[in-house]
Design goal:
The chain has nine helices and 18 strands. By secondary structure, the chain is an alpha/beta fold. Strands 3, 5, 6, 9, 10, 17 and 18 form a seven-stranded mixed sheet that branches. The protein has a six-stranded parallel sheet with strand order 13-12-11-14-15-16, with helices on both faces. It has a three-stranded antiparallel sheet with strand order 2-1-4, with no helix packed on it.
């Protein structure tokens, strides 16, 4: 079947290891369900994989992609929940053995993807396949960061760092839909203009905010972390799910204890949170921001755009053309 996969690891030039072509479907457990993929979307995770973060040379070739929406083997329209973990504790994201599709088991950038049947979440008819395919990773991560881990209060305030990214645009849109005052930084003036149209107050990185916030959404890391600490109000939370620009940040511990700040890690979300997010998008008439859509066979061009850092919102692959 046609697939976009990692055929080699290259930490410096990740796209050198990307192949888009025919690949025999890899082995998966017999009792898993098969989904004909109609749309998928890219995440920074796919670039990390090609760089060898979380993916070893002994696992190649590995089909990339965490996100997909499609039609299951029983004819239902579904969104694929990408965390493969034990939900025994009620939260598969804290299973130490959890993996994401494309880490241990083949990912979603293929004609078909296989996943445990409980990972298939019904797709609401109100959402297109392309819209639904944007939600399982970036949007789910942002949703959990704001609601579960950030405990965003009603009438709260949020700062989103690096506002052009997939998680960040999701956090801005979800934050606004939750009624929060949203501040967002971006290095790029054009992205700041676009983020303002979503109802956020757009600022340059490091700018002083008109108020301190309840929750800071951090996916940038070292480049913005000091600013994040300064912008949180006493008792506020800096919720971290990524470190695109460096994972070794400087933390002024005096600020942490004196202001009783919480630095909170967050990863993906549970299957139930994904179902909640789908319902939330329908109820609030909220749709993911799509930067651009590529035919599946043009997946390499989508990866080039992701790597360029020019992206505003999600990159979608249309598997029907
Ligand atoms: N833990 C999880 O479950 C989870 C889930 C999803 C993503 N993540 C992680 O979260 C991060 C973001 O993912 P994504 O898919 O949203 O990535 P993305 O779409 O590629 O966005 C990255 C954003 O980071 C900002 N940025 C990059 N370098 C920067 C720098 N030097 N200084 C300031 N800002 C910088 C950019 O914002 P501006 O251009 O607007 O400044 C860019 O838009 C990644 O590291 C990813 O691995 C983690």
């Amino acid at each position: 079947m046609l697939a976009a996969y990692a055929r080699a690891i290259n930490p410096d030039n990740p796209l050198d290891g990307l192949a888009v072509g025919e690949l025999d479907p890899p082995q998966t457990p017999d009792d898993w369900a098969t989904v004909e993929v109609r749309a998928s979307s890219l995440n920074h995770h796919d670039l990390w994989s090609l760089r060898g973060v979380g993916l070893g040379a002994d696992q190649l070739p590995m089909i990339l992609g965490c996100d997909a929406a499609g039609v299951a083997d029983d004819g239902t329209e579904v969104v694929v929940y990408p965390v493969i973990g034990d939900p025994g504790t009620g939260d598969e994201t804290v299973d130490p053995k959890r993996t994401l599709l494309s880490e241990k088991w083949p990912g979603t950038f293929a004609e078909r993807v296989r996943a445990p049947r409980r990972s298939l979440v019904p797709k609401p008819g109100e959402l297109s396949f392309a819209e639904a395919a944007c939600l399982p990773t970036a949007w789910l991560t942002a949703y959990r960061m704001l609601r579960t881990r950030g405990r965003l209060p009603d009438d709260g305030a949020v700062l989103v760092q690096g506002a052009g990214g997939g998680v960040a645009t999701a956090a801005v849109a979800i934050g606004r839909a939750l009624g929060a005052r949203v501040y967002a930084t971006s290095r790029d003036p054009a992205k700041r203009d676009r983020i303002a149209t979503l109802g956020a107050t757009a600022l340059e990185p490091g700018a002083r905010l008109p108020e301190r916030v309840d929750v800071v959404i951090e996916t940038v890391g070292a480049a913005t972390f000091e600013h994040s600490l300064k912008c949180a109000k006493p008792g506020g939370r800096i919720v971290v799910s990524g470190a695109t620009a460096g994972h070794l940040a400087t933390v002024d511990l005096r600020r942490v204890y004196f202001l009783q700040l919480e630095i909170v890690g967050s990863t993906m979300g549970t299957r139930d949170e994904l179902a909640e997010l789908l319902a939330f998008c329908v109820a609030k008439d909220l749709r993911p921001l799509v930067d651009s859509t590529f035919a599946f066979a043009e997946a390499r061009a989508a990866f080039e755009r992701l790597e360029s850092g020019e992206v505003f919102g999600k990159l979608v692959l249309d598997h029907t053309r």
